[in-house]
Structure prediction request, 445 residues.
Amino acid sequence: MSKKHLFILLVLASFLLSACTAEVNSTAITASGTISANQFNVAAEIGGKVAEILHDEGETISSGDILFRLDDDIVTAQYNQAKAAVSSADAGLLAAQQQLNAAQIQLARAEQGARLLDLQAQQTQPDPWTLSVPSQFQQPNWYYLKEENLTAAREEVQNAEAAVETERANLDNVQTKASNNDFLLMEQELSNARARFIVADQTLTQANNAQDNTVLKEMAQKEYDAALADLENTQRNYERMLTTAAADEVLEARAKLAVANARLENAQNLLDSYQTREYSLEGEAAQAAVNSAEAQVTQAEAGKTQAEAALALLEIQLKKTTVSAPTDGVILSRSLQVGELTGAGITAMTIGQLDEVKLTVYIPEDVYGRIQLGQQVIVNVDSHPGKSFNGEVVRIADQAEFTPRNVQTVEGRKATVYAVEIRIPNPNHDLKPGMPADVDFGIER
Prediction:
């Protein structure tokens, strides 16, 4: 064999040896983790005793399927009571509306009657616009609205009433003063004498009109003469006391009260003259009845609203005694039994979505750059030997996790890892949460 052929053989042998050595030393990128799935914790929104359980662990359920029911006897009774309250509120509202209708009819009748009276008055009384006004007034009769005149008249009546109370209190105070006792006694004597004379005068008139009245007239005349003498004597005594300070004070107090009473009477007359048609006392009474009926309708409407709100609340609570599945999936766990008490928010069942599971593994930093989103991988689990599952990389962590946490050396930094999440279709539900799994990324280190 020539040297040239020998050299070629040596080169080929060296190449084959090198290739075999690379294959022996090459290592596929793999990792291990635990299967997980989206899980939903199911709990009742209200507490109560478990009355019925319709699905158990391992069963496949659909969204909306009833999982369990709570005892609803108390809530049902409260619901029926609330329905009765709504019916009662409806009846109360109807009665209030009927009362309002009746009050409105009475108001219309009162206004009609007032209009008829006004019509009759217009036939005998002059037109208010043609009436003269006091010389002190600069505005004509038509200047103010009827409502404004009524308001002013009502205020004047109120002021006059207050003035009467003030002057009556003032007179009472004057009459309690000890310094005025003598004059007050004289006033009382004069009042008694006046009353005696009035009675005697009436008696004499009756005696004069009687038949066979000689004796009657004589006796009545004597009583009349005595009463007149008593009146004249008391009047003279009274007049002698008018010069005293007590008389001045008492007379002034009486005059003030008399003026106040006259003011009140005149103010009331003025108000009465303005109170016609709907402003008449009958009209105002009818309007007050309408206002009261309207208030009762408003109150009845509020009562109905309140009853309906209570019914709606109990209807919601009644619905919440039935707990349904929030999603499709498989019941992974159940932590309640029939007859047990469960509280609001306490997990009763756990539902897992097993049609698609995920696997989270951790890869070292030196191969981080070789893993790509969307990369297809092979997953194996011990529970199904010889069977592989296809997966897809759907997330690669942006931040590394250090193991150990404090890394100071180049060798230590090789322990830095990144989380990689893999999505695995699981139509037959072969993969269960918690299963350990191995993943082969299909590439060499």
In short: Residues 132-275 form a domain with the Four Helix Bundle (Hemerythrin (Met), subunit A) fold (CATH 1.20.120). Confidence is low (pLDDT under 50) at residues 6-26, 404-408. The chain has two domains: 3-69+328-444, 132-275. The longest strand covers residues 347-364.
